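Section 3.1: Structural characterization of target chains.
Under the original work plan, the team committed to producing a structural model for every single-chain target entering the pipeline before any wet-lab resources were allocated. The record below documents one such target. The sequence was received from the expression subgroup and is listed exactly as submitted; it comprises 799 residues.
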Amino acid sequence: MNISHNWLSEFVDIKSSPEQLSDALNMMGIEVEAVHDRRRIYDNFVVAKVLSKIKHPKADKLSVCQVFDGETERTVVCGAANVDAEQTIVFAKPGAIVPNGGFEISARVLRGVESNGMICSKSELLLEETSDGIWILDSGLEIGQPIGTALGLADVIYEISITPNRADALSHLGIARVIAAYENKKWSLNKVVVSESARPIDVAVDIRNTDDCARYMARVARNVRMGPSPAWMQRRLEAVGLRPRNVVVDITNYVLMECGHPLHAFDLATVEGNRIVVEHARSQEQYTTLDGKDRVLDEKSLMICDPAKRLAIAGVMGGENSSIKDSTTDVLIESAWFAPSSIRRTARRLGISSDASYRFERGTDINALPWALDRAAQLMHELAGAELDQGVVDAYPRPIERRQMTLRFARVSTILGFALDREFILELLRRLDFSIVTETENEVLLEAPSYRVDVSEEIYVIEEIAILMNYDAIPMVTEAEVSLIDTSLPVAFREPALKRSMRHSLATLGWHEIVSQNQVDPHTEKVCHGDGVELANPLGEDLSIMRSSMLGSVARIVAHNLRQGTRSIRLFEFGKTFHRASDESQASLIVSEREELILAACGAAQETEWYAREREVDFYDIKGAVESVAQEYHIPLSFEASDHPLLSARQLRVVTNGVSVGVLGEVAKSICRHYDVDKSIYVALLDASVFAGAGADMQKFKSVSAFPVMERDIAFAVETTVHSGTIKDIIVQTGSAILQGVRVFDVFEHSSVGQGKKSVAFRLHFSSDERTLRDEEVDADVQRIIAAVTQQTGAALRQ
């Protein structure tokens, strides 16, 4: 969409340069794709007059004209068929740079006649794509005046891209409101005064589906003088990319670009009984639209009708049978609100994308209808001499109330990661046109402006606050990061900060982050033993299930990388999984959402070097990666036996603070075969929120002991079903304060140990910060440990 700087200035006082304004819009979420500064491109282009025209002596298709540019009479050779004497034209003086060609105008000899300038068409000035001839201007313009001033072309055009949620920004008024909020200024609308005749309006409106058409307003303009719209209006429409048609259509388009609400004009003579009926079409009904095409409708297509026939496809396109023609004298002006879902469905089914449907399907402001209608009526009176019937029809059976939502001040600080002053938040809300219904010390009940149809919940209000205060103003180190060591701050700050930091740490360790789709195909979900949630309206079968496990998505990526020749794969992702939960009280499906962290490794753990052989990734690589992250973030870990169906026998449950946070191990061979992977894939599947939030709030450090360390090695013969972690826990719990560390250094199974038994050896580290230890006290500690292990596990000490 194109936006005119001059037009914007009518709604808000703009002091910023185009570059500054472009930056401000980008910061406010309105993407400026290009800025076309037309204030300089029309230098040396002036309003001029053709004094005479004669045929070129050596070329049948060329004319030799005498042109007066306000200062000098010049001879100009022109090839346009429509050039003639006494015309007021746009003249490019020598030195001018033609916008659509980039070449400079200079004196040139054309077939023996010297030409000193050029008579211009609109296309040469970049005002339309193609032109049939030169641009003939209004004869009342001052000769010699620069066209930038005379024609209003000294403008800056912003080419902007609007996201689907920002329907409020699809007009000059909408962009002006954005600028006013950013610069803390007031915005204003043109004051509309409707001069009505004594004749009362005689139009009836019958809305038969108030869900799809909540409001329908109409005015009647009589004795309209059909013809072209004024030059200033045409230039504004052309500046934003619209082709002028006639005064009535141009006015509706002008109001659309001005305030963002679509209007439609009907030839009143074609409306049977002056009665409008809003209803759905019949299945397979045919209707011819303005573009001359026959459209096949269905029973969900909303139509504007009279008692005898269809007049238009509501909010999408008008019909041939009710269009404005040169013979039209009386006009019915429609200003209505249509449900976005209804318009979106109809427009897509019929393959129509009009300026009206583009806005209706994103959501329009139902409270903007009266102003848009009166503005169009005012312009028809002023520009086309229309006589306006007294009164307005306003069918609004079920008024729609503005959305209300509660905003908690503490929640704003929690989401943004730093504290914001309460009064500052309230000031930002006022700049965003939110109304304050009720207010307490901790929260405020807000009413969203009716034009912000996208704002319905607290989180959206917080996003608007963040945008308006400027994301660049958010501190580089927020309370979220500080809270990693400051236990006085809210716990909610820790998880996002830890996850960001974990991403960096994993990347530093050589792991590559990936982002996969939350949706998968049914077969992938079945392979992963899941019961994912089916989407009601998927983009396709490949994306029809909300996944219950991330393993399928990541396994597909591993397989793709192996096929591309990647030898060593180490991937991680923070992603969402979705799980069913039935609510018997409501007899409905409830879907829970969980954020998970997956690590996946496959292929070479270490490639061949001169000092070492190549080694494949194994179980201990994935276990070591989880332990490394846990150690860095002070997350206490222990491991237990696991029987996860997606993993092979080589797997462990990951436990922190007594809570299971996931599993790790080798992916089941059946899943590897499904993805044609002939190597072992090792993964860790972790509950990201619990895992990341389990880190210690405050780490305490102490100086290294100045006294020597004493070590003791002990080995136990134990049943193979007893885990070394169980023995280690017993050792730690039994040892006294002088036991500073325990490490497994040897595990093996052999007939010499015993059938069904294994040998587990531990190295114990003893030291004190206060003195040198004596052998007898260390030996006493070791004996207590041996006794506890043998008693609780049935182990035997190996000599």
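The first helix runs from residue 5 to 8.
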